[in-house]
Each structure stands twice: as structure tokens, then as C-alpha cells.
Amino acid sequence: MTSATDDDVAVDPADFAQARINASLNPQQKIHFLKEMLRIRRFEQTALKYYNQGLMGGFLHLYIGQESVAVGTVSLMGKNDHIITAYRDHGHALAVGMGMDECMAELFGKATGCSRGKGGSMHYFAPDKNYWGGHGIVGGQTPLGLGLAYALKYQNKKGAALCFMGDGAVNQGAYHESLNLAALWKLPVVYIIENNKYSMGTTLERSSAMRNCLAERADGYGIVWDIANGEDLYEVRAKTDSAMRRAHEHSLPTVLEIDTYRYYGHSVADANAKKYRSPDEIERYKNHHDPIRLWRKRLVEEGVITEEKIEAIDDKVKEEASKAAQFAIDSPFPAPESIFEDVYWEVDKQTDAGMTGRHFFGD
Amino acid sequence: MPLITYRKALNDALAEEIIRDENVVIMGEEVAQYNGAYKVTEGLWERFGDKRVVDTPISEAGFIGMGVGASMLGIRPVMELMFWSFAYVAWDQIINNAGQVRYMSGGLINCPIVIRGPANGGTNVGATHSHTPENFIANTPGLKVVCPATAYDAKGLMKTAIRDNDPVCVMENTLLYGESWEVPEEEYLIPLGVADIKRAGTDISLIAHGRAVITALKAAEILAAEHGINAEVVDLRSIRPLDEEAILRSVSKTHRAVLVDENKPFCGVSAQIAATIQEQIFDELDAPVQRVCSLDAPAIYSPELEKIQLPTPDRVIEKALLIC
Ligand SMILES: Cc1ncc(C[n+]2csc(CCOP(=O)(O)OP(=O)(O)O)c2C)c(N)n1
Ligand SMILES: [Mg+2]
């Protein structure tokens, strides 16, 4: 099989702290990862509170339980690395450095939101941070991730496109077409399957035919693949690093499946969240596999930080989240005219092209 | 007559047809064990089992195409799209395969498939989840499309759609699922291509389909109460086949029309209706035909703004007063 971390042979597989990319970390960086994971969790808990008060519309897909995946992978991104994901997108957004204010305001549908109130929870974007969304159609982002990789290669940039997707998205045809193109044209894309075991109320077993795991399907295309335990930030980083180096050094794709778990329902509206899986299962993950809990423990054991200092960080993060909520509440809704803005570039910029012919119709 | 929800009416229609015809199979994402994302198929898996009610992976092109193929061999698949917005993933299967195979085979093949699910804006789920593709479907000869506005119509049209020997797209509405209407206990069918006068009137015709019918009815009440205008509300129910007679009859009586349409205006359903009216009964018109459509931009998320993006009774009244 084509699996395994081919150029990481020196690493003891049991302890990814020793991996090249982790051994060089300083305490500040490790504490930063903790803070970033806490930011995602507190942001979403705050959002949930206001969603339940009816201050937001649509869906709210929470990332809580999966934070180590976004934080671990994004921590490796450099100037020419890009990222794109599905609708469960708040974690990746905060990890790339989007502010809580603009992310929260988007949920409230405010003009100050990252997408000016136009996209909502599922459609965050920040191209200035190499963050290309936030996509609502399952699997729809997988060819786009390939396109980012294509553009990088075309422009001779040494970069990688990290394309995230769920375990249910692997059954979309667009993903399989993308894998073939990625291998055929040697494109520097890393498909990261965040395997949280469920697509809505459907277990992995009920939706996917496979030999041993989802990533292994890459074998059929001759693409290198690997699996990672998402509860360990060191492992996420080590395995993502191998994949990104394969993209950077050899312009080759990788499929990386990261095992993880979501604590909440598919979205907050998921009425069956505790029916298709047992409360025991959820508790087991929370108590024994929680990535934040495990990372905290690890840092304390390593002597990097004390529990008191962690609490202080957490307090600050909670304050940041409640300030973001206040910012969102105080922000204005978009003006009605803005419905017709951001549809066409040429019209927005009032170019000749934008002013020739009728672009909008109505009554 | 018992009051039942739009959701329950659909559920009853599916159950009755599963019992009536052993070839009817319900299929889609989360339709079985989860009881349906919007609970339209609630209880069906428990009642009818794995063979008749089937959960699929998230592979719309694959399973919709499979349904088209199975229908060629006599199965009567009723395929749920969790949202009609996801039909775009399966567009080739719907348009090229279901829509064209009969013609290209010189009539040797037919596809008795039903593709159903919600197609509406108004729930703040953003541009990717708020499409109303009834005009695209209606633009494809070979396909049929219906948009029920009430529980009564939903049940009668669904049962007819399942028995129809051509591909029928049923576009429902998540905002209507929980609303209740009177539905008789005894069996009934509603033919495709027959409109329904939801409110008789003499002064102006409000012509609509789907939830826009409810908007038109609200507008009609206000027009009567506050402006002394007696509006007739014509519910198209079926877009293709279309009950042109009903449209022309109503407008010939009232001489004025406002078309209410949650579709976008460009090549929307109402554009076709407007063309029909002016082509066939131009001399009956006392004023230009008016339209109230969704504002012509992708569906905005912001809940405050999406409210005004869709047709409202106020906008209908404004247009009506312009020509009355
Ligand atoms: C094409 C398409 N089909 C169906 C849906 C509805 N839907 C949204 S998320 C989802 C489940 C996806 O599960 P998975 O890929 O495992 O991601 P997770 O939600 O677990 O992060 C479904 C069926 C959709 N958004 N797009
Ligand atoms: Mg999943």
C-alpha cells in the first residue's frame, strides 16, 4: 500500500511529539495552539447561546470536539498555502486568523460580518487569509481545492491547498473526479477527511463502502494516503506536515483521514442528535478523547504551563467571545440596497462592462 | 374534514402509494432511519421496512440517476432531495436522462420517477440552499413539475405524480410543512395541469404557485378590507403541464393581473404566464400585467433582508393598486 509517512521514518509512531515539526516547537507556540482551540470552543458556545435565543437564522453546524484538526493543520500553513472547507467552517476560520467579531456578526446577519451578512454560518470567506470558504453543498468544495492547487502549480508557487471535507462527502462524484485529476496532473492538494463517524444521522458503515478506511480509496488513484488520530495535536501536525511537504517538494496530492468526533448534533436543529448514537458514546469522547482536555494535560505534564495560567487564558478567550457577541448585536443590518451588491464584479465597480446592458431584472 | 399538516399529507400520500403499488420505493438521504430531514417520511421505514424505504449516501448524481434507470424497468422510485438545491449535483441525470430518454428513444422508453423535496427561500440558509428551480424544470420538455401550496393539494398531486408515467418533479416548501389544512379522509387524486381558484373575485387576478399563493391570499384579504378590491387568487398548482385555460378565464373576467412568484424574474414562471396572457387575450387587458418576484440576486442570508427579498403581501398590494 502507498500509505505511511514515507520521509518520517525516524519518528516513533507512538509519540508524535518527537516528529521534526513538533520537536522544534517552543512553549509559546504550544500555548498558542491551546488558546486557538479554546477560542473555537468558546466562540461556538457563545454563538449557540444566541442562536437558541433566536437571534440568528438558518443552520448552525458546530465544530466543537474537532478543534485539534483545524488548529493543528492550519498551524503549518505558510504564505502560499491555502485552505477551503465545507459548511462546518467556524473552526478553520478562527484558526487562520479571522476575528471573532466579524465571524460572530456574520452569524447575526450583520453588515459587519465577514461576508457582509450575505453568507451566514456556512459561507465564511477570507481570501486575504488564504481562506476560500465555507461551502454549503456537500463535496462542492473538493474540485475548488483542486483548483487552488492547480493555480499554485501554474504560478510556480511552492504551496499546498488544504481541502477539508466530511466522511459523508467522500461519496460525491466530484470528489472522485478530483482525485483522478489530482493524481493525473500531479497537483499539490491535500484532501483532509474529517472523519467524525457520522454524516447527519448516518453512520460511516451505512454510507460508505471501503476496505479498511476512507482514505484508502486513494490507492485506486495511486495517491499516497494516511490516517491520523485527531485527538492528538502532535499527530495531526506530524501527518499533515508530511502531506504538505509532499505537495511542496514533489507537487503531489495526499489524502489524509483524521479521526475526530462532534459533540453536538449535525446542526443545532438536529432533533435526533441523541438517537442515532448513544449518550454514552458522546460522554466517552468528551471524557477520554477531547482534544483540548488532552492537550491541556500534555502541556501541564511537559511543564509548559500551569492549570492556573490555562484558566486565565480561558477567561480571556471567553471575554473575547462575549465581546464579539456584543459587537454583533450592536452592528447594523445590511442596507436593503445591498441585496443587489456583490453579484457582479463589473457592476460593483461600475465599469463600462458593468454599465452595458441590463444586469438586474424585476418588477 | 380533519385538519392535517402539509407534511402529514405528503406522508399519507407516500404511505398509501407504497401500499397500493409494490413497485413504489422511497429513497433519499436520511429518509428511513432518521425519519427524513424534514420528517416527511416519518414512520415509513418502521412500517414498510428496508426494501421500500431506503437511506442513501450523499451521492445525488448516483442515486437520482439510479432511480431514473430503475424506472425504465418499471420501478416507481420516489426520490427525496433533502433540498431541491442539491438537484444541481444530479442535474445531468434529471435533465439529460430523465428528461430526454423518451424522446431520443423515439418513445420506446418512459421514466415513471418522482423527484421530490423542498424548494424555497425564506429560511435564512443562504444562496446555496434556497433555489427554486421550477422554471428550469419547466424549461425542459419531457419533465413535469408541480408546486403544491396546501396540504390538500400536496397529497392529491403527490399521489397523481407517483402514478404518472413520466418524470414528475414535486417542489415542496419547508415553510409550509408545519401548516395545516382540511384534507378528506377518503382517497382523492388531483390531476396534473389543473389550476385551482383559491379565492373567487372580480376585480383583479392574482396568479401564483407554491407559497406565493399564501402571500397572494393575504394580499387579497387586505385589498378587500382596506381598498374595496375583490381579487381572485389563481393557484397554478402544476407548472408543466400548465392550466392555461384557468389563467385566461380568470384574466378575461377581471381584466387585470398581478403574477406572484417566488422564482427570480428572469425567465421565471411568471414570465411565461405574462407572455401567455398578452399573446392570447391582449384585448381583455385593461392594464399591463404586473409581477412580484423574488428580488433578483442570490438568496441573502441576513434574516432581516431575506424577509424583503421574497414576495410580501405589501408588494403585491402595491402592484395591484398601481393597476386598479
Ligand atoms: C449535495 C448535498 N447533499 C446534501 C446536503 C445536506 N447535508 C448537509 S451536511 C450533510 C452531512 C455531511 O456529513 P459529513 O460529510 O460527514 O460532514 P459533517 O457534517 O460530519 O462535518 C448533508 C447530508 C448538502 N448540503 N449538499
Ligand atoms: Mg461526518
Task: Describe the structure in your own words.
The complex is a heterodimer of chains A (363) and B (324). Chain A is of the alpha/beta class and 363 residues long. Chain A has a single domain (30-328), classed as 3-Layer(aba) Sandwich (Rossmann fold). Chain A has helices spanning 20-23, 27-52, 67-74, 90-95, 100-107, 141-154, 173-184, 204-207, 233-250, 279-288, 291-301, 307-330, 345-348, and strands at 82-84, 161-166, 189-195, 198-199, 202-203, 224-229, 254-259. In chain A, the strands form 2 sheets. In chain A, strands 1-2-3-7-6 form a 5-stranded parallel beta sheet, sandwiched between helices. In chain A, helix 2 crosses helix 3 (67-74). The termini of chain A are far apart. Chain B contains 12 helices and 14 strands. Chain B has helices at 6-20, 44-48, 60-72, 91-98, 101-104, 134-138, 151-163, 212-227, 244-254, 269-281, 303-309, 313-323; strands at residues 3-5, 24-28, 53-55, 76-80, 114-118, 144-146, 168-172, 180-182, 196-199, 204-208, 231-235, 238-240, 257-260, 290-292. In chain B, strand 6 (144-146), helix 7 (151-163) and strand 7 (168-172) form a beta-alpha-beta unit. In chain B, the strands form 3 sheets. In chain B, strands 3-2-4-5-7-6-12 form a 7-stranded mixed beta sheet, sandwiched between helices. Chain B has a 5-stranded mixed beta sheet with strand order 9-11-10-13-14, sandwiched between helices. A two-stranded antiparallel ribbon of chain B has the order 1-8. The mean pLDDT of chain B is 98. With 324 residues, chain B is an alpha/beta fold. In chain B, helix 3 packs parallel to helix 4 (91-98), helix 8 crosses helix 12 and helix 9 (244-254) crosses helix 10 (269-281). Helices cover 37% and strands 17% of the residues of chain B. Bound molecules: thiamine diphosphate (TPP) and magnesium ion. Thiamine diphosphate sits between chains A (88, 136-138, 166-169, 196, 198-200, 266) and B (29, 58, 60, 82, 86, 89).
